[in-house]
Amino acid sequence: QNKGIIFDLDGVIVDTAKYHFLAWKNLAESLDIHFNKKQNEQLKGVSRVESLKKILSWGKKSISEERFESLLHQKNKEYLGFVDQMDHSEILPGVLKRLKILKKEAYPIALGSASKNAKTILERVDLLSYFDAIVDGNEVSKAKPNPEVFIKAANLLGVEYQNCVVFEDSIAGIDAANNANMVSVGIGDQEVLQKANFIFKDFSQITDAHFNEILNTMKT
Ligand code: G16
Ligand code: MG
């Protein structure tokens, strides 16, 4: 196959967003900072360091570098506690079925995620073996909407950028895919993901006919 399939992790494959929210909320409250669900949207697809910076700015707090590091550690420790309880039942609807079809048809498959915990999570939900390449928060220096994460994934797959399709749930991620000249497919809310080439509520809504239509928009 000369077409590559790239998946975001959080919000596309699994709903770890709820665990990020809980861990950040608890951490913020220990600092007497309170934020709501709407503010939490701004943390999606954003790195751990940038997320903490945002939370501190909401609370108008400045802290030492050492304290910053220890808070990052504290948040991740709680988050990993939730991740540890996960199993394959937390794979979002339709994802496993699509991965199986893609594997059978020998499509190169990559993960493009901002998370440093991506591999751990894929292992927990038993999906690691489906991916030919993984690019995560440990390998990228420029956050989405910079296309670096998806460019690296395409390079590892050996597929041309315009022959890749990206599945994403965040605005920054859709922008990143568009910036890389890839076909962007939004998973989630139509109003939020307007700039995507295609939008579906979740993977269970993507039929084989839809999938072929998506792949057929590529020139080669
Ligand atoms: C995910 C989440 C973000 C999270 C980031 C970093 O990105 O959407 O909320 O802050 O990863 O995660 P970690 O602290 O595990 O390194 P993605 O790109 O998978 O949606
Ligand atoms: Mg995401």
UniProtKB/TrEMBL annotation:
The record marks 113, 144 as: Important for catalytic activity and assists the phosphoryl transfer reaction to Asp8 by balancing charge and orienting the reacting groups. GO terms for biological process: carbohydrate metabolic process. Binds 2 magnesium ions per subunit. Substrate binds at residues 8-10, 24, 43-48, 51, 75, 113-117, 144. It comes from the Bacteria. Its cofactor is Mg(2+). This is Beta-phosphoglucomutase. It comes from Psychroflexus salis. The lineage of its organism: Bacteria, Pseudomonadati, Bacteroidota, Flavobacteriia, Flavobacteriales. The gene is pgmB2.
